[in-house]
Specification:
The longest helix is centred in the N-terminal third of the chain and has 21 residues. The radius of gyration is 23 Å and the shape is globular. It has 14 helices and 23 strands. The chain has a seven-stranded mixed beta sheet, with helices on both faces. It has a six-stranded mixed beta sheet with strand order 10-9-8-11-12-22, sandwiched between helices. A three-stranded mixed beta sheet has the order 1-5-4, covered by helices on one side. The protein folds into two domains: 271 residues, 3-Layer(aba) Sandwich (Aldehyde Dehydrogenase, Chain A, domain 1), CATH 3.40.605.10; 187 residues, Aldehyde Dehydrogenase, Chain A, domain 2 (3-Layer(aba) Sandwich), CATH 3.40.309.10. Strand 8, helix 5 and strand 9 form a beta-alpha-beta unit. Helices cover 38% and strands 23% of the residues. By secondary structure, the protein is of the alpha/beta class.
């Protein structure tokens, strides 16, 4: 079994223990063994990053751009191979996995360009004979803690802007999916960036994550993951004065109005709710449907769900792979029981299923699940399940639908299906979400524009696009006497 080490100060560094990385589509398939680092590995990685920072942060922008472009080029050239690895370790279907790898390459390409577009301002002082310059400088060593559901795209959209803006990085990937992060680290390692600029420390969140968050030489923490963990990180960062950026999920609404195109509404609801096994923070898990279209929508969505083939993520014809782990499957199924106990009516799914290919492979397969006739106060409509589970709430009109959509502690993404320009325009302004979709799935964003939400979904500066600069830099104002 191949062992994969941590990357610290430009060297692949062995750990005291290793953990198997298992394929959720086929539990007999072990991809490799990956390092389980300790607090001492974090100490070494942060020390290396801090030592590399003075040179990297003042290095020429062309050298940074060339390095990021080289990383992007290799990712894109190996898209099929890396997509195969991603699908194998996370359970995302092969087309989705290859698409995610392509997105990671595009992100590095974008930030290779951003290296050459770093700007500032020169303004006159209110005092005669004095000039004022406003510039941005890299913040320092950043700790990046990433989730399992996008094991290469999310590390990419944190690493690329950090390096582009002159920061040094310690990456802690999700323990469930270290393979894609390790492959990305290997590409970065061979890109020509100096030793210590980028470091990878794999291992348990309670060990590696806590050591990063509590390290005095880490200037900022960017975290994507659960709400509970995110809040704990925020508290620790505030106490120590660290800059913090959090993305913590959602309970995203998808409104379907009476005037919607039925086929379009059904398709975008199916795409948002069940593809990627519903394991996306932007997934639509609350379908808010108005009275007149409600019966036809339920019938059409059930028919569409019956067409979804659940099976091995890498097999041809699979529409939805397994959920990522036994723990996630148990959580998903527990919410099915909670919903039934609260009076929701199960309209489809709700059970563990066999692989559609009939291969006999043992995996964490669950049928796409739909509850109807639900109430807003039910736990199924309040808490993030993070699986292929959606619930339908019936409302009388647009006004009630908008109020229902906003009645959540989260605010990441929200969608509306309608042919009314009036309602679409009103919804874009009055939806309490960071991202709004009109006649599009709630899950699906571009890499060159800001990503993030409101309320309990996000905290701190936005990710992606030019807005990423806000987190990875600090502003300096300099005065000069002419």
């Amino acid at each position: 079994m191949t062992q994969h080490h941590n990357l610290i100060n430009g060297q692949w560094t062995a750990a005291d223990s290793y953990c198997p990385n298992t394929n959720p589509s086929d539990l007999s398939d072990v991809i490799g063994e990956y390092a389980q680092g300790g607090a001492e590995d974090v100490q070494a990685a942060v020390a290396a990053a801090a030592a590399a920072f003075p040179v990297w942060s003042t290095s020429g922008i062309q050298a940074r751009s060339d390095a990021l472009d080289k990383i992007a080029t290799e990712i894109l050239a190996r898209k099929a191979e890396l997509g195969e690895l991603l699908a194998r370790e996370e359970g995302k279907t092969l087309p989705e996995a290859i698409g995610e790898v392509g997105r990671a390459g595009q992100i590095f390409k974008f930030f290779a360009g951003e290296c050459l577009r770093l700007t500032g301002e020169t303004v006159p002082s209110v005092r005669p004979g004095i000039g004022v310059e406003i510039t941005r400088e890299p913040i320092g060593v950043v700790g990046l803690i990433t989730p399992w559901n996008f094991p290469i795209a999310i590390p990419a959209w944190k690493i690329a802007p950090a390096l582009a803006n002159g920061c040094c990085v310690v990456l802690k990937p999700a323990d469930l999916v270290p393979g894609s992060a390790w492959a990305l680290a290997d590409i970065i390692h061979r890109s020509g960036i100096p030793a210590g600029v980028f470091n990878l420390v794999m291992g348990r969140g309670r060990v590696i994550g806590e050591a990063l968050v509590n390290h005095a030489d880490v200037a900022a923490i960017s975290f994507t993951g659960s709400t509970g963990v995110g809040r704990g990180i925020a508290e620790a960062c505030v106490k120590s004065g660290k800059k913090v950026q959090l993305e913590m999920g959602g309970k995203n609404p998808q409104i379907v109005l009476d005037d919607a195109d039925l086929n379009q509404a059904v398709e975008l609801s199916a795409q948002s709710g069940f593809y990627s096994s519903g394991q996306r923070c932007t997934a639509s898990s609350r379908l808010i449907v108005t009275d007149r279209i409600y019966p036809a929508f339920i019938e059409a969505l059930q028919a569409r769900m019956a067409q979804i083939k659940v099976g091995d993520a890498r097999a041809a014809g699979t529409d939805m792979g397994p959920v990522v782990s036994q723990a996630q499957l148990e959580q998903d199924l527990s919410y099915v029981e909670i919903a039934k106990a609260e009076g929701a009516r199960l309209a489809a799914g709700g059970v563990r299923v066999a692989c559609h290919t009939g291969s006999g492979k043992d995996g964490f397969y669950m049928a796409p699940t739909l509850f109807v006739d639900t109430e807003a106060g039910m736990r199924i409509n309040r808490e993030e399940v993070f699986g292929p589970v959606a619930s339908v709430i019936r409302v009388k009109d647009y006004e009630e639908a908008l109020a229902m959509a906003n009645d959540t502690p989260f605010g990441l993404s929200a969608g509306i299906a309608t042919t009314s320009l009036k309602h679409a325009t009103h919804f874009k302004r009055h939806s309490q979400a960071g991202m709004v979709m009109v006649n599009l799935p709630t899950a699906g964003v571009d890499y060159h524009v800001p990503f993030g939400g409101r309320k309990g979904s996000s905290y701190g500066p936005r990710e992606q696009g030019r807005y990423a600069q806000e987190f990875y830099t600090t502003v300096k104002t300099a005065y000069t006497l002419a």
